[in-house]
Write the structure tokens for this entry.
Amino acid sequence: MDFTVQYLSFFVVRGADENETAAGYKHYQTLDEAGYLSSALKDFLDGEFARIVKRKVDRNPKNEQAPTKIGRFIVESGYELESNPNYNLFARLQEATTKEDFRCQSEELARAYANTSAVRGGALIVARAKLDKYFDKAFIFIMKCDFEPKIATITDESSLISQVEMAISAKNMKSIQYPHMPEEGMVEEWELKIHQASHARYFEDFLKFVQYEKSLPEIMNTQVMGLVQQYIEMTYEAESEERRQEEEAIELWAASEKRELQKKWSSEQVIEAAAALVEQRPDLEMKLKLDHIAIKALLADFGENIHIARLGERYVVLIEGNTFQFEKGVSPVELLRPDELEDVLARIRQKQTRGMEDAIAEDDKPPF
């Protein structure tokens, strides 16, 4: 995947510091195609354009902190793409006909980026590159490299090393690619791809008129709450005290970071609700913990391969399947000849009985 760089602008962004110096930027140089080919940046960026385009991205990521996302330009109903100011900035970069024109448009972008909240210093590179194999229209790439602290180079025998100021690395480079290329040879002009492998969401602050697809957990939360609301409406009288209390309890449950089993629905109701979600998204995950034991599966497994039950005063998770597979590192468990389920349940009951007897014996001990 060979890209031809038509124009490239290089900026250094300065973050706000403890001395209350405002964030800003400085333009260093704008290169045309010939200038780029003879510059040190070519060696630095070689392969980065193809790497950015080929980077895998899920339309609905499996977690909310996914580093790579698809963004879509927001427009009011009935309006065209040209009504979005973020799109217009990319379009002007695509349409620039001279090096000076590209520099001006890139500077507008750098200015907007430097004004985002809590921006950190580093190198900001704006490039227009063409993929001649497929398209006449070029891609816009925005790349941000943070400064690397405590970088040194070996110099000579007397000084040994010298400190390098403003060192940058492509290792954790953040990037924006417009337009998004979902498949080789196909572009989506309404979408861009954003990559920022850190908790700081500078690019999302910078692109205020771009929305991102929901993650799978967000989709499941929304749909589950919709099913819960339907259940409440069918079960409780409108404006009743019971309904108000149930809605408050559900609201607290949904907002909790660590949630416990609610014991409200039967297995059949849960299986029916899960089936409605799985029909839309077969890859929805289910994660739970029983004490310290973590279980990760597909939501579709519940009621089919995974079962939750009570045995006396304790919970039991039953997982059924045909084959076992162990990770690296031999353990004695791999030598097991499994007991029949009835024998295991009998052992659990015996353990519970012994625990209750020990507790009673402890209570019956004299205080002195």
In short: The mean pLDDT is 87.
